[in-house]
Specification:
Helix content: 25-40%
CATH architecture: 3-Layer(aba) Sandwich
Largest sheet: 5 strands, parallel
Structural class: alpha/beta
Number of domains: 1
Number of helices: 10
CATH class: Alpha Beta
CATH superfamily: Thiamin diphosphate (ThDP)-binding fold, Pyr/PP domains
Distance between the termini: 6 Å
Strand content: 5-15%
CATH topology: Rossmann fold
């Protein structure tokens, strides 16, 4: 079966993700700063959230009933900024000034930027904030959903597990935790730094409705996120299996690309790889 998921602008989601991935590489190269590996791994997740799942759009950023998204792994800001630009939430011209003086697009996201709810980057806080937002939704009888994206290495922070206990206790079915499970962190594999497995079993034990998905497949992510019961009593967790540096062969699964900046030659190689990737609908078996 061939399944094509279309965005609000009409482009299929996987091709939209490819375009955003090229925007990320271009933005990092121009600024000579950023976290390219972490940004590239999250692109399909952000694409599905902003172009298919959430009701976040340029006209409702102050609407109390809008959905919320928090990028807890705030060092991967380039992926978020480029997605916001592609979705029309910020002016794409801002990407040209990323990291320059007086540009609101800083190395970690701030709420000076339209569409960004809270400042993030100090790891381990996003899930707690998201849980508070989801609880506020229930107490105010104003239904909205809250999505938060963490890194897998970020789950080594104990505050995440306190937030999970609270989410389960308060029956926050409108809260969805997505884990960018690429297996790498700053300079080494997560398993060699501080093992978090068995992650699925742990999340289930904390009361989360837990599923696993291919985090670099827009079709798989759509199927999972479309199928969640956001009106129920159990918070949700999606373990999104991803590849750090996804889409650029020499960056994939290489820890140093957490923060390394490509040379001009590497940039051109990477852009050529992304340009030459087959543009066709996903095949869903």
């Amino acid at each position: 079966m061939v399944r094509v998921k279309y965005t609000k602008q009409g482009m299929d989601l996987q091709n939209r993700a490819r375009e955003i991935r090229r925007m990320v590489l271009r933005t990092v190269n121009r600024a000579k700063g950023g976290h390219v590996g972490a940004s590239l791994s999250e692109i399909e997740i952000l694409t599905v959230l902003y172009f298919h799942i959430t009701n976040i759009n340029p006209s409702n950023l102050t609407d109390p009933a809008r959905d919320r998204f928090i990028l807890s792994k705030g060092h991967a800001s380039e992926g978020l900024y480029c997605t916001l630009a592609a979705a029309g939430l910020i002016n794409p011209d801002l990407l040209e000034n990323y990291l320059k003086n007086d540009c609101p697009l800083t190395i970690h996201p701030t709420n000076r930027v339209p569409g960004i709810e809270v400042n993030t980057g100090a790891l381990g806080h996003g899930l707690s904030i998201a849980g508070g937002m989801a609880l506020a939704s229930k107490k105010s009888n104003l239904f909205f959903r809250v999505f938060v994206l963490t890194g897998d290495g970020e789950l080594q922070e104990g505050s995440n597990w306190e937030a999970m206990m609270a989410a389960s206790f308060f029956k926050l079915g409108n809260l969805t935790l997505i884990v960018d499970n690429n297996g790498l962190q700053l300079a080494a594999p997560v398993a060699k730094t501080m093992e978090i497995q068995p992650l699925r079993d742990k999340l289930i034990s904390f009361g989360f409705d837990t599923v696993e998905a291919d985090g670099n497949s827009t079709a798989a992510l759509c199927d999972v996120l479309d199928g969640l019961d956001y009106s129920g009593d159990r918070p949700h967790a999606v373990i999104a299996k991803t590849t750090k540096g996804k889409g650029v062969s020499f960056m994939e699964n290489v820890p140093e690309w957490h923060h390394r900046i490509p040379t001009d030659e590497e940039y051109l190689r990477g852009m050529n790889e992304l340009e030459n990737r087959l543009r066709s609908p996903e095949i869903v078996k």
